[in-house]
């Protein structure tokens, strides 16, 4: 039973493990991998998926105590939120700063975080017509750190923070200071930041009514394959031409701007189509995987149910058979016990009968009374007296001695007499007094008769038991008795 139960448990564990392993499950992720997946989602314009992944990365980073990934994920989430809610973006960026300050690891990242906070604070102030003091404080702090780290980090962060200061002052309508910061930002801007710095500079020049200088900046800008930047350049050139009342230049700039806008539009449509195609393909693949997983789970659970039913049926059958076998064994043991009790009771009754008859006969037969006195002294019986004793014993014991003589015709008379005295339950001392021999001689003669006359080799079996088992019916009268020949 224990083996069957162990097999059932192992089957359940195996099938459950198979169900779990076969079903599609996302591999365990850490905060870093989740953050990288979020960046990939943003690259594919999956903003919602990217924000969800960033939220998961933040949760995992807190659990894993990964402070670096934590503030990077918070900062990137703030950047995504800034498109719709500047206040939310500002709050998230401040959380990134708090996370960084707990375990600072890179001055570059600190400058970037401060610069982002200043930008978001300026957006909030601009939208709410509030104060720009908070924005200026964070951005100036970022600028000072960038200048102090210029020897190790280069001028990239200096240009970036100067551009932010120019934007903030431009939003404050402080165009002269904004122009000063914009010129400094262009002077130290690396190649990949130059286009952005020039855009801010040109805008500040336009705000300061330096139209010729602004046009010169726009014309030296090299947007390359950046269609959006090219559209901004051409549209601003068209605006400058209109302000100069140069209709030909304005028309040319407007046509160029519309050309770039058209390219930008079709490029956006193509990207959108590619995105939806990829999303549709991914959805189909996911649906196919879900269907296959559901089908596999169905078959696995069906197999599990069938195996369980078979196992339960086998368990009940085996249990019933074991119970039947146990009941049969108990019944047989009870029957054997009853038979043994009956045999013991029969032997007990027989011994009681023999003892009763012996006492009865000893009390009424003069010869047997004489034999009964052999325990005390030596007694000699004549042949007639031995014959009388044998007749008396045969009369009360189903002719057992007569059958013995019939089965073993050449048995010695002294062996018959020994069997008679043994059957009468006389002690070895009384038998020795009758035969005029010692007790040890009586024991030796009994062993000899048991082996030579009856063929019994078991030393545990006595002559009394051998005579007791001598059958008295014709079919088995000779069982256990062999001829001396």
Walk me through this protein's architecture.
- This protein is mainly α.
- It has 2 domains: 10-293, Tetratricopeptide repeat domain (Serine Threonine Protein Phosphatase 5, Tetratricopeptide repeat), CATH 1.25.40.10; 366-468, no CATH class.
- Helix content is 80%, strand content 0%.
- It is built from 21 helices and no strands.
- The chain has helices at residues 2-22, 31-43, 47-64, 67-81, 86-102, 107-128, 133-148, 150-153, 156-171, 175-188, 191-207, 211-220, 227-243, 247-364, 366-372, 383-396, 400-407, 413-423, 428-435, 439-452, 463-468.
- The chain is rod-shaped and about 175 Å long.
- The two termini are 59 Å apart.
- The model is unreliable at 21-26 and 472-485 (pLDDT under 50).
Write the layout of secondary structure elements.
Layout: H1 2-22, H2 31-43, H3 47-64, H4 67-81, H5 86-102, H6 107-128, H7 133-148, H8 150-153, H9 156-171, H10 175-188, H11 191-207, H12 211-220, H13 227-243, H14 247-364, H15 366-372, H16 383-396, H17 400-407, H18 413-423, H19 428-435, H20 439-452, H21 463-468
Question: What key phrases describe this protein's structure?
Answer:
485 residues; mainly alpha; 2 domains; rod-shaped; disordered C terminus
Q: Assembly state here? A: single chain
**pLDDT average, as an integer?**
81
Query: Radius of gyration from the CA trace?
Result: 60 Å
- CATH domain topology of the largest domain: Serine Threonine Protein Phosphatase 5, Tetratricopeptide repeat
Domain module tally: 2
Q: List the total number of helices.
A: 21
Tell me the overall shape: rod-shaped
């Amino acid at each position: 039973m224990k083996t069957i139960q162990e097999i059932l448990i192992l089957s359940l564990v195996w099938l459950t493990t198979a169900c779990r392993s076969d079903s599609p499950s996302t591999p365990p992720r850490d905060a870093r991998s989740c953050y990288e997946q979020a960046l990939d989602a943003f690259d594919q314009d999956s903003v919602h998926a990217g924000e969800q992944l960033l939220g998961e990365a933040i949760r995992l980073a807190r659990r894993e105590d990964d402070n670096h990934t934590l503030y990077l994920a918070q900062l990137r989430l703030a950047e995504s939120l800034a498109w719709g809610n500047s206040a939310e973006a500002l709050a998230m960026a401040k959380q990134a700063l708090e996370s960084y300050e707990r375990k600072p690891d890179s001055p570059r990242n600190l400058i970037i975080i401060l610069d982002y906070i200043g930008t978001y604070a300026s957006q909030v102030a601009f939208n709410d017509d509030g104060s720009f003091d908070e924005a200026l404080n964070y951005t100036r702090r970022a600028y000072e750190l960038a200048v102090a780290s210029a020897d190790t980090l280069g001028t990239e962060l200096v240009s970036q923070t100067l551009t932010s200061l120019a934007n903030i002052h431009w939003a404050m309508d402080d165009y002269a200071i904004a122009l000063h910061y914009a010129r400094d930002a262009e002077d130290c801007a690396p190649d990949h930041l130059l286009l952005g710095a020039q855009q801010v500079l040109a805008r500040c020049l336009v705000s300061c009514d330096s139209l010729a200088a602004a046009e010169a900046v726009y014309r030296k800008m090299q947007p390359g394959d950046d269609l959006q930047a090219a559209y901004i350049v051409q549209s601003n050139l068209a605006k400058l031409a209109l302000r100069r009342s140069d209709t030909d230049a304005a028309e040319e700039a407007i046509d160029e701007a519309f050309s770039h806008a058209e390219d930008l539009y079709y490029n956006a449509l193509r990207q959108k189509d590619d995105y939806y195609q990829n999303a549709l393909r991914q959805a189909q693949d996911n649906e196919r995987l879900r269907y296959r997983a559901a089908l596999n789970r169905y078959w696995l659970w069906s197999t599990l149910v069938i195996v369980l039913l078979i196992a339960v049926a086998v368990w009940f059958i085996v249990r019933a058979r074991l119970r039947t076998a146990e009941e049969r064994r108990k019944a047989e043991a009870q029957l054997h016990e009853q038979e043994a009790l009956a045999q013991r009771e029969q032997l007990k009754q027989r011994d009681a009968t023999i003892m009763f008859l012996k006492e009865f006969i000893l009390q009424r037969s003069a010869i047997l009374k004489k034999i009964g006195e052999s325990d005390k002294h030596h007694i000699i019986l004549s042949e007639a007296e031995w014959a009388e004793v044998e007749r008396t014993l045969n009369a009360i014991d189903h002719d057992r001695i007569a059958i013995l003589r019939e089965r073993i015709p050449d048995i010695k008379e002294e062996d018959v007499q020994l069997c008679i005295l043994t059957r009468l339950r006389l002690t070895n001392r009384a038998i020795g007094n009758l035969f005029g021999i010692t007790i040890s001689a009586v024991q030796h003669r009994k062993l000899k008769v048991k082996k030579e006359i009856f063929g019994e080799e078991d030393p545990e079996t006595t002559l009394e038991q051998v005579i007791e088992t001598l059958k008295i019916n014709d079919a088995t009268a000779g069982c256990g008795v062999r001829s001396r020949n």
